[in-house]
Amino acid sequence: MALTRFTIVAAVLSAWADQSTAISSACAPRFTWEDAQLTDSIASSNASLFGFDSNSTTAKISPKCKVFPGDAAWPSQLVWNLFNVTLGGALIKTVPLAAPCYNNWPQHDAAQCQYVTNNWADPHLHVSDPTSAQFPLYQGRTCMPTDNPNDNCTLGGYASYSVAVTKVSQIQLALNLARNTNIRLVVRNTGHDFADKSIGAGALSVWTHKLKDIQFISNYGCKGFQGPAFKIGSGVETEDLYRAAEQNSVTVVGGECRTVGIAGGYIAGGGHSPMSSLVGMGADQVLSMDVVLPSGRYVTVSEDSYPDLFWALRGGGGSTYGVVTSVTVRAYPKIPVTTMTFGFATSSNVTADTFWAGIGKYMSYFDTFTAAGAYGYFLTVGIGPGQFFFQFMPMWGNNMTKPQFTTLVTPFLNDLASLGIAVTPNITEYPSFYSAYTGTFPPEQVGNTNSHAASRLFPKENFQGTKLNQTLAAVRYAIEGGGVLIGYNIRSAPNPTVNQANSVNPAWRKTTGFFILGASWAANATDAEIAQVSETMTTDWMAKWRAVSPGAGSYMSEGDINEPNFQQSFYGDYYPKLLALKKLYDPTGLFYAPTAVGSEDWYITDQEAWIPTQNGRLCRK
Ligand SMILES: Cc1cc2nc3c(=O)[nH]c(=O)nc-3n(C[C@H](O)[C@H](O)[C@H](O)COP(=O)(O)OP(=O)(O)OC[C@H]3O[C@@H](n4cnc5c(N)ncnc54)[C@H](O)[C@@H]3O)c2cc1C
Ligand SMILES: *[C@@H]1O[C@H](CO)[C@@H](O)[C@H](O)[C@H]1NC(C)=O
Ligand SMILES: *[C@@H]1O[C@H](CO)[C@@H](O)[C@H](O)[C@H]1NC(C)=O
Ligand SMILES: *[C@@H]1O[C@H](CO)[C@@H](O)[C@H](O)[C@H]1NC(C)=O
Ligand SMILES: *[C@@H]1O[C@H](CO)[C@@H](O)[C@H](O)[C@H]1NC(C)=O
Ligand SMILES: *[C@@H]1O[C@H](CO)[C@@H](O)[C@H](O)[C@H]1NC(C)=O
Ligand SMILES: *[C@@H]1O[C@H](CO)[C@@H](O)[C@H](O)[C@H]1NC(C)=O
Ligand SMILES: *[C@@H]1O[C@H](CO)[C@@H](O)[C@H](O)[C@H]1NC(C)=O
Ligand SMILES: *[C@@H]1O[C@H](CO)[C@@H](O)[C@H](O)[C@H]1NC(C)=O
Ligand SMILES: *[C@@H]1O[C@H](CO)[C@@H](O)[C@H](O)[C@H]1NC(C)=O
């Protein structure tokens, strides 16, 4: 009976919730689904569940821990049903992607298990799932693909419920419900985050993947900026936006991975790009954003609307100040791009010391190359005792013809030749960013749980004078220890045509070398073995990188979940201001993610040292 009544009430509410209370932003109109907002009258019709934040609810939220499944205070089935109907049926009870491999799930299905197993390394498989993490180490590895159906699969660190959002009212309902019932909230877009910041046991997940609109604005013509721009929903992935830019003969700033979400974690974290050496960071390109705040209210954030949040949402990290529903970013005219690929390795002609001298030569050009607007993406790895391998994947010359690029790199190639390192560079000119991107960037592989990363943003001083040798020695130490270097020769170019007064880690503004260090272990490693490798990386290898670059930082979106003093490393001097804004806009602590601003006030129960999974309860310290 009760269920029926709730269902009818909720169906009516659901219809109301779709009514528009549109406020178009001045320069780029809201998408239709952004006009479907939660009204006060609907929210207050069951305020204990769906009411917006007010000072009275703030006072009410005092429990030490978030409510967890099985607790008496966990919302009843009736509440979940009411919520689902109010959402218009968008609630998903989450199921791990690999559940079909296990007898202990009703989804068990050998053919589907085979499909998931075969495609596990393809990011697209995980992106289109409401909960899956692309690197499930901190999910607890509780439901990996297996050929033993008698193993146990559990939800582990995955959220309990996910809302497949297609309109703003659903985000508002989810935020209000999570806050009012004191359950954990997570925001998930593509699940790419290295530290699994998009998952959490016992959480309600806001899944933004379906917000796929891309609108090209040929002449934005608003305030400081006159020119081409895109307004995109927060589910838009890099490859979607790159394709749209190509179709409209413009260039946009995005990352290197095809499936990362532009308006989600990428811009929130700062966002580095092959274009960064020419025009700055991804976050610098933002003209306006639309955001559901922790209060449940929906606002436009720009230079003159919530300017404090406009600063914080461009660099201060995802899942902290609200859920971004769309962003408007500027675009640039079409440019030619010239790329270069080659590799070299130790051999009978190239000793280990010569190899590292070659790497040092490359580093000595970091400032020259980035000042010319170029970018380099490269791999350096050990391939046996005293043996090493280097590969460009590729080096990238923005807005350069082949002759211009060749002139830039010839002194470097001559230096390698005089060291006796023979290389055969493939230098290719492309007519556009997109053609260069599809022509040279390898597709990514995900899904593994046998590696873990840390990173450092090295300023240009590290690659000059006597510091260059010290930097080289610190890098070599980590690679000799078994680490893998994914290197970027990149700068955040100063760009007076965009607003760079944002919270991007100030270390980015000095960087010419962004180095990701990967540590790995056997696929069957025990927790103790994983913990040991992770500890070695953080406290030994990375300690040397930190020592040689005092006061620099690390990139939060490709960083170490165990980073010591993460506040300084990931946010630099901006941390106190970011924290004050966090407390102002999210006084109840609705948003949490590991290493996010304010996360030091919380802990997750049942964590093991060096393997901080999201499988326990979220509690206040
Ligand atoms: C293979 C690979 C290559 C990469 N290459 C680059 C690169 O070239 N340049 C670069 O800068 N980064 C790169 N990254 C890092 C990438 O930017 C981050 O992992 C980023 O956080 C992914 O964002 P997402 O929204 O796609 O993923 P998610 O994991 O879903 O989200 C990441 C974080 O953002 C939050 N979030 C997501 N959407 C929203 C939203 N709408 N509102 C508020 N919070 C939100 C999530 O809660 C989470 O905390 C790469 C990562 C991988 C795995
Ligand atoms: C609101 O929801 C709560 C929890 O299910 C329920 O007890 C209450 O009766 C509802 N109120 C209204 C007005 O529907
Ligand atoms: C909440 O309380 C603060 C301080 O007591 C006050 O300044 C603010 O106006 C109140 N907000 C609302 C929405 O009542
Ligand atoms: C929510 O409702 C939809 C549509 O009725 C249904 O398909 C889905 O299974 C429901 N979700 C949950 C968690 O019950
Ligand atoms: C699965 O879990 C059950 C109950 O916790 C336990 O009895 C069983 O041994 C587990 N099986 C495996 C293969 O771990
Ligand atoms: C080493 O140098 C010799 C002579 O220059 C050359 O013939 C040979 O191919 C080189 N070997 C490698 C592995 O580069
Ligand atoms: C590319 O270079 C041309 C001149 O060669 C310049 O006019 C143009 O502004 C550059 N484009 C960008 C995006 O920097
Ligand atoms: C150089 O690279 C381009 C683009 O990847 C490729 O098409 C071409 O075959 C390469 N040329 C040589 C000689 O390897
Ligand atoms: C760096 O090391 C190399 C080889 O070890 C040495 O030849 C060179 O002089 C050193 N450079 C500086 C600036 O110390
Ligand atoms: C992992 O597998 C290797 C061989 O494949 C074996 O030697 C090792 O003992 C295994 N380790 C564990 C913890 O099972």
UniProtKB/TrEMBL annotation:
Transmembrane segments: none annotated. PANTHER family: FAD BINDING DOMAIN PROTEIN (AFU_ORTHOLOGUE AFUA_6G12070)-RELATED, GULONOLACTONE OXIDASE. Keywords: Oxidoreductase, Signal. It holds the Pfam family FAD_binding_4. Residues 1-22 form the signal peptide. Belongs to the oxygen-dependent FAD-linked oxidoreductase family. Residues 155-334 form the FAD-binding PCMH-type domain. The lineage of its organism: Eukaryota, Fungi, Dikarya, Ascomycota, Pezizomycotina. GO terms for molecular function: FAD binding; oxidoreductase activity. Coiled coil: none annotated. This is FAD-binding domain-containing protein.
